[in-house]
Design brief:
- By secondary structure, the protein is α+β, with helices and mostly antiparallel strands.
- It is built from twelve helices and 19 strands.
- The protein has two domains: about 10-180, 2-Layer Sandwich (Bifunctional carbon monoxide dehydrogenase/acetyl-coa synthase(codh/acs), Chain M, domain 3); about 185-425, Bifunctional carbon monoxide dehydrogenase/acetyl-coa synthase(codh/acs), Chain M, domain 5, CATH 3.40.1470.10.
- The protein is about 25% helix and about 20% strand.
- The structure holds iron/sulfur cluster (SF4).
């Protein structure tokens, strides 16, 4: 397969390139655009024309420089072995293949797609969608030979994508609904995915019947179909093996797969916990479950949530703390579909541990929340800071309050409230949570080699921090 006729290079070497705002020619989809999608549909051999590429709306060269634009990518595939079950997995390769293109960045999936095309690549001649369509067609046909025919359509005019957008959403919903009847206890095999290891080398998704892939794009059925047609590919079967702890979701086969695929970086995983050896998170998660230590509860925030969550932090800041293939207790990447699962963070208390989530997510999963909790978990419309959250939880008798009693958090809360009466909140010490690792070098006197201090997952509390400039006389 050659790309020499194209103006830009294509290859694995370009995966992981980041295009900053100042360097981008255009942004396609992303948080500023409401309707965006990428969709793969399987067709009969006579329904599509191999090699066809269509653009519905303005082409790349006609899009305003530096702007954010609507995007829809429809890829239709046909072949004797192509089945509907493979659509989700073929679709997920759009992420990988787009990132192969020099000077191009693709993030997220499905209705969250976010692409940036860099100025340098645009100036080199990557100024038509047809080029991207050709890249997709060549990569798909060479890497997934079961695809015999492939047709690509780009939608860039929002007014002309309503019908196909509705089809995309209905297709995603139908895929998600399919797994809901299946239980983890009833299957012998889970599926692993390492597609995101180019960004997060120690990350592997374990896709079970009741724990969807973090990106929300690959179900257990999708994993099964992919592993069947390409068992040595990035999606593969994991035999559950011995059940070490069924409640927590600890399986010998899963631990072994982690050990092998992360080269020993991750060896123990509890699938249904955000705290105890949690499933790793790459950067493609749809949402984050994040600890709110002041109430001993978990909040949920998703990628499209604008503004700050109840703890005062935006999604992007918490995503930095969560991503990177690490196991960070209390910062847990997950799919929206996992919120609908009976296995949703069961070790941590499930829905009873959730104390805040955005209204739009609540609306989407409302029917799957326990009835008694539906109207007592606040959203951004009910509370906007931790103080309001505490009051709301107490006033609505949220079950998290029982944990305060059990864990002594009630006493701490009362103590905090007493202190608040004495010291304004703005002057009180706040915990500085440092997920992951931070390193600092302390130089020694007289130019001698200093030493390093490495903080791992540290939480630092300080009543007061004093930074003083040393005078010459102080140094002596
Ligand atoms: S988030 Fe997980 S399932 Fe989705 S592509 Fe990445 S590794 Fe695969």
């Amino acid at each position: 397969m050659s790309f020499e006729d194209l103006p830009i290079d294509v290859g694995v070497v370009h995966e992981g390139e980041r295009i900053r705002k100042a360097d981008m020619q255009v942004e396609l989809g992303g948080p500023k655009i409401e309707k965006k999608f990428e969709l793969v549909l399987s067709r009969k051999m006579n329904e599509i024309e191999d090699g066809e590429i269509q653009i519905i709306g303005p082409d790349l060269k006609d899009l305003e420089e530096g702007g954010s634009h609507p995007i829809g990518i429809l890829i239709e595939v046909a072949g004797k072995e192509i089945e509907q079950d493979l659509e989700g997995v073929i679709e997920r390769h759009i992420h990988e293949y787009t990132n192969f293109v020099e000077g191009t960045m693709h993030l997220n999936q499905r209705y969250d797609v976010w692409i940036r095309i860099g100025k340098k690549s645009f100036q080199k001649g990557f100024n038509r969608f047809k080029i991207l369509g050709q890249v997709y067609q060549r990569l798909y046909k060479s890497e997934l030979p079961i695809i015999e025919k492939i047709q690509v359509t780009f939608y860039t005019d929002a007014s002309k994508m309503n019908e196909i957008y509705d089809t995309a959403i209905a297709t995603y919903n139908a895929r998600d609904e399919r797994t809901r009847g299946l239980k983890d206890d009833e299957v012998d095999v889970f599926y692993g995915c390492t597609l995101c290891q180019s960004f997060s080398p120690t990350h592997m998704c374990v896709i079970t019947a009741q724990r969807y892939a973090n990106c929300g794009a690959i179900s257990w059925f999708d994993g099964r179909a992919a592993a069947r047609v390409d068992p040595k590919g990035p999606l593969f079967a994991i035999k559950k093996g011995e059940t070490i702890d069924g409640e927590k979701g600890v399986y010998a086969g899963v631990n072994q797969a982690y050990k092998e695929k992360t080269l020993g970086a991750v060896t123990d995983v509890a699938l249904y916990s955000a705290f105890e050896n949690p499933h790793t998170s790459c950067g493609c998660f749809e949402a984050i479950a994040f600890i709110i230590p002041e109430v001993d509860g978990l909040g949920i925030v998703h990628r499209d949530f604008k503004g700050t969550a109840v703890n005062g932090l935006p999604f992007s800041t918490m995503a930095d703390s969560t991503a990177g293939g690490r196991q960070i207790p209390g910062f847990h990447g997950l799919a929206i579909e996992y919120l609908r699962s009976p296995k949703f963070l069961t070790v941590d208390g499930g829905w009873e541990r959730i104390v805040w989530l955005p209204k739009s997510i609540k609306d989407r999963v409302y029917d799957f929340m326990p009835e008694t909790l539906r109207d007592i978990i606040p959203t951004e419309n009910d509370v906007s800071n931790i103080d309001e959250l505490k009051t709301y939880l107490k006033d609505h008798n949220h079950p998290i309050i029982e944990r305060w009693v059990e864990t002594g958090a009630a006493a701490r809360l009362e103590e905090e409230e007493r202190r608040e009466e004495l010291v304004p909140a703005s002057q009180q010490a706040q915990p500085f949570i440092m997920p992951g690792q931070m390193m600092t070098t302390v130089p020694a006197a007289g130019g001698a080699p200093g030493f390093q201090i490495i903080f791992k997952n540290a939480k630092i509390y300080a009543e007061k921090v004093i930074i003083k400039r040393l005078d010459e006389k102080d140094k002596k």
